[in-house]
Amino acid sequence: MSKFQAPEAFSPSSASWKLLPFRFERLNSHVLLTNMVGERVAVSESDFAQIADDGLPADSELVRRLRAAQIIMQPDEKAPLELLALKTRTRYRTLPESTGLHIFVVSLRCEHACPYCQVSRQSSDTDRFDMSTETARRALDLTFRSPSQSLKIEFQGGEPLLNFPLIREIVVEAERRNAQLGRDLSFVIATNLALLTDEVLDFCADHDIYISTSLDGPAELHNKNRPRPGRDSWERAVDGIRRVREALGADRVAALMTTTARSLDRVSDIVDCYVEQGLTEIFLRPLSPYGFAVKTKAYSAYGTDRWLAFYEEGLNYILELNRKGVGLTERFAAIILKKMLTNEVPRYVDLVSPSGIGIGALVYNYDGDVYASDEGRMLAEMGDETFRLGNVHTASYADIMLSDSLLQPLEESFAASAPMCSDCAFEPYCGSDPVYHYATTGDFVGRKPLSGFCRRNMGVFKLLIDKYETDPHARAVFLDWAGR
Amino acid sequence: MTEHQLTFDASMHSADAIQRAAYRLSDRLSCDLVAEGDTLRCTLHLPPESGDVPSVVADFRNEVLDQTLRERIRNETQEVRNLILALAFSNTGLVDASES
What we know:
- By secondary structure, chain A is an alpha/beta fold.
- Chain A has 2 domains: about 5-90, no CATH class; about 100-315 and about 345-400, TIM Barrel.
- Chain A has 18 helices and 16 strands.
- In chain A, strands 12-10-9-8-7-6-14-15-16 form a 9-stranded mixed β-sheet, with helices on both faces.
- In chain A, strand 2 and strand 3 form a beta hairpin.
- By secondary structure, chain B is an alpha+beta fold.
- In chain B, about 45% of the residues lie in helices and about 25% in strands.
- In chain B, strands 1-3-2 form a 3-stranded antiparallel β-sheet.
- In chain B, helix 1 (about 15-25) packs across helix 2 (about 55-90).
- The longest helix of chain B is centred in the last third of the chain and has 37 residues, at about 55-90.
- The interface between A and B is medium-sized, with 26 and 26 residues.
């Protein structure tokens, strides 16, 4: 007798299919179905009509796909329920491990004068906007109170290298405390690299510090976007990238670009600049509605649809480069594809629900004020302290994590229960971003049909799915990006 | 502002489905909904920037159909959804057993 049953034993016993929870969205050429955890099936309109009319046969190619994605099951089956439960638990497994990212604003000073600055930097001739040692130590107390096994400390500004002595102190002190605690501790300096010195590089090498910088594209575009004395921001940035790569390794530096109105017609030039500098990733980012970006009207200089056209052109160009053997990853797409195609949960705070504010990241401002996110801090610099959770000198960890300023926006913005999001097939890939919606509409949820956040994300989701379903080359590249 | 009247059979469509459809299209129209016996009367208000009126109205009708289908799926799967969530979060420590 065979150890295995014949294939017929696994065939459905009847055509009486039972639906499992799923959501759907009509796209241009097909209908997208996603199950409770975001696993998806794209079907034709006629196939979708079969599902809607309870007209599925006992067996067919469509039935097998729907069954594999746990969108339908036989009435007496248990395995699909257990699998969905397991996957749901996996999806939320990181929630009890808050907070992984701790942002230290060691100085609000900056020697750049970018009109799109989202943090409302201060001029660099005064140390009134520097974090003190005492504030930093109290912020470290809170950092190590987080239950997360993985702790990333990110130094931001202004320009954090203007207060490099404090960065040294914080790194050394954090490592000293962690010697006994054994957390997975890592450091990032978010710097424009204009003030990079050999001393900084040596310290980064000794303490395995990662560098994140800004590169907006070719020299004239970057220097117009990012003015500084000497008009040499681009020259300093690319020289800094080269020096970091040489001193720390090619994988120890990444760059971010910000899209201004000047960037919109130049996406291929911007991408080429990244390739020329030996960078293997680019993040095509829109402007956010905070800080000087609002005051100088840089934020309102272009709409979401124009940014989406820019993004699509850039993505097509990057895919073409990959076809020619140039390995370049578009970071925003890679984060979304990881959510679509794997069971990993990227810790990108803009694309998680519950929102990443507080539970994904905490921000310690130079004056000791604690914010639920970097954008919450940016809003406070504009005079609105809605997302201020307390001050390191007076608030306990419990005060901060249980404050109404954190819990109320978290609860209200939870996408699975937000209007329209709760029915949206893309919800498992999306986030809730209460800070964006508060900044643009005055409430934490916003009206999704009018939300730039919703329109932008939906546009990118549809673009990625359409390419994945119709372009074999894009599919291969996307699978590679998702697996990184 | 252009107005357009639609009526829906209340035995075939719920007010909730129509309201959800109106919300989805609230960047292009606003809607008054009145229950009159066995029908739901819907007055759509379309601002000039909505574009082609027949096309927006057709989109609204289709969205009501989709929302009705979503409602059916929600109702049919609510029990199994709760079962899956209960299975998912049992023994995780996330729910305090003394609270249940």
